[in-house]
Specification:
single chain, alpha/beta, six-stranded parallel beta sheet, 6 strands, about 45% helix, disordered N terminus
């Protein structure tokens, strides 16, 4: 029944009107090889501090309440059968214990997909008492958008295409389409599919999918190399907020990001450290969901896996598509905007602040 209901709801898409003002062109090549460009560009990206907030407009995303209820109820039966074994395996005392599956993932070891999706320390039955804090990654924990843009441009060059994403164009693309593959598919669908080192213009869906897959795989490798060579920094106040949440035995804590799993794990381990990352109850990343934000699937699935009612989950996001995803899942959302998202319409958020130093956990989730 849940699958039938889900199939009847078309995946939402944020407004793409803003893209009409941008016609991607190939700018002059920056001076110096890419490794020399990285420290300067990343430093500039991380050093930018947004001041103030403006409002704009964008499409609203809503998911019928019956769909959330149906999916949550269906999850209850599964969680009930697994509850005892999970409690024996992980337990939950006064302080959080490291989640073995997430610890393995942070260390780079292979972990079964289901172990990451369902790995909450002592999961409770869906609908029972409990609360959760769900963090986005890019833009909330770390500002890494410039690294992603540079990685895409390098892969476009390596694949012998003429595609270049400028900073302005990527900002709009970033805040319109969730996920790397959907971004490329959207862009090439509008601007035309390119010939590449893989062959001539891909005319069939299979050929287009093969090009996108190959580019995304290589982009992930490039991004991971950049993370290893350039020290990214956490956004102000976010590590302290995470530590406070992890120290609260009444809260479950998760990260829900559209980023590719291997890339997200790399940068999260770099920013948070493996020991801290292993304390999270759940990591849901781009490879774990079939539809990206602003679709609410990732947050609906997080509530299901954690065994927490959606209305008892609080989301920390930085963009309108993230806000739409949280609201579509029936979850209140707090915004820590970035320079590229500061002018978006956050009127439906619980609060809008420049960074996590302005968020108080006791106000978000009172004791």
């Amino acid at each position: 029944a849940a699958a039938t209901a889900a199939a009847s709801v078309a995946p939402p898409m944020a407004s793409t009107a803003g893209l009409e003002a941008f016609v991607p062109g190939r700018p002059a090549a920056p001076a110096g090889p890419l490794p020399q460009q990285l420290p300067r560009r990343l430093s500039a990206a991380l050093g930018r501090r947004a001041l103030g907030s403006e409002t704009g407009s964008s499409a609203e995303v809503r998911v019928p309440s019956f769909l959330v209820a149906t999916i949550t109820a269906a999850a209850g039966a599964t969680l009930f059968s697994r509850k005892k074994s999970q409690e024996r395996r992980f337990g939950r005392g006064p302080s959080k214990r490291a989640n073995p599956s997430i610890a393995a993932a942070a260390a780079g070891d292979a972990a079964p997909r289901d172990s990451l999706l369902g790995s909450s320390a002592g999961a409770t039955l869906a609908g029972s008492a409990g609360r959760a804090v769900l963090f986005d990654c890019d833009g909330v924990i770390v500002v890494s958008e410039e690294l992603h843009r540079l990685a895409y441009n390098q892969v476009f060059e390596e694949f012998e295409t003429s595609t270049v994403w400028s900073e302005d164009y990527y900002d709009v693309l970033l805040n319109t389409i969730g996920g790397g593959k959907p971004k490329m598919r959207f862009h090439f669908g509008r601007e035309g599919w390119p010939a590449s080192k893989l062959g001539p213009l891909p005319e069939t869906e299979d050929a287009q999918a093969a090009l996108i897959d190959a580019m995304q795989d290589r982009k992930t490798e490039i991004f991971e190399e950049m993370v290893a060579s350039v020290k990214a920094e956490a956004r102000p106040g976010i590590v302290e907020l995470i530590d406070e949440a992890l120290g609260r035995p009444d809260l479950k804590v998760a990260i829900c990001s559209a980023a590719t799993k291997s890339a997200a794990q790399k940068i999260l381990a770099s920013i948070l450290g493996q020991e801290r990352l292993a304390k999270f109850d759940l990591l849901l990343l781009g490879d774990d969901v079939s539809r990206k934000k602003p679709d609410p699937l990732i947050y609906i699935l997080a509530a299901e896996r954690l065994g927490i009612e959606p209305t008892s989950c609080v989301v920390i996001e930085d963009s309108k598509i993230g806000l739409d995803a949280a609201l579509g899942a029936g979850m209140p959302c707090y915004i820590t905007f970035t320079e590229s998202t500061r002018s978006q319409d956050f009127s439906k958020a619980k609060a809008v602040v420049a960074d996590a130093t302005k968020l108080v956990l006791a106000d978000i989730c009172p004791l």
